[in-house]
Amino acid sequence: MDCNRAAFLTGSVALVGGALARPADAATAPPTSATPEMLLGQLMAGNKRFVDGDFPAASREVTKRALVVEGQAPFASVLSCADSRVIPELVFVQGIGQLFVTRVAGNYPDDLVTGSIEYAVEHLGTTIVLVLGHERCGAVKAVYGALKEKKDLPEHLSAIQRLIAPGIAGVVAARGSLDAAIEANVRAAMAALHNSPPVIAKEASAGRIRVAGGVYHLKSGAVKLLQ
Ligand SMILES: [Zn+2]
Fold first, then answer.
1. How remote is the CA of residue 13 from the centroid of ligand 1, in Å?
2. What is the pTM (predicted TM-score) of this model?
3. Where are the domains of the chain?
4. DSSP state letter for 208
5. What is the CATH number of domain 3-225?
6. How far is the CA of 136 from the centre of ligand 1 (A)?
7. 199-202 long-range CB contacts below 8 Å, 24 or more apart?
8. Most buried residue, 30, 90, 148, 190, by CB count within 10 Å?
């Protein structure tokens, strides 16, 4: 067991499938018996709480803060947009130590993001990776417009364009909607991560981790998983 994970689990409890599991025996117990699918279910149960406005007391985080001083074992990695309306910890009602979050405009992984998620998979034991797109994404919209007008975005934004454009070019060519482009971008980001060697591709192809994708809906707060 990774030492960070063992340290975190000592004397703590793990939340699996919405229920409190037994305290882990850090020396001998496996980190968790939960499958990637169960952990995705845990995320989505949190999203239902968010939609319903069911938030835990903020004071709970003070207690949890002490549990993660020696290490962390987030149960999920989330790659989301930097958009101020899409906050993964709120969207899934998760607190300190529960999600390993990387955020970048357009939620498409470059090397820094991939390396971050790789770290979570290899060293923190994360077995579910969720790419979270969202409605009305300004980054995807900008790239969509640039492709449509056959222009390049200005410097720095052009870096985002280079990453996102291949995944949505087909939608733009077919005069598809922005929603379709947003979904295509999530799928392209999922594929990029899933096929990323050495760590993520190996773990994903062996079925030890799962790379999932979803789109956040601004008004309802609901995440729709992509099948
Ligand atoms: Zn966005």
1. 34
2. 0.85
3. 3-225
4. S
5. 3.40.1050.10
6. 7
7. 199/118, 199/121, 199/122, 200/114, 200/117, 200/118, 200/121, 200/129
8. 190
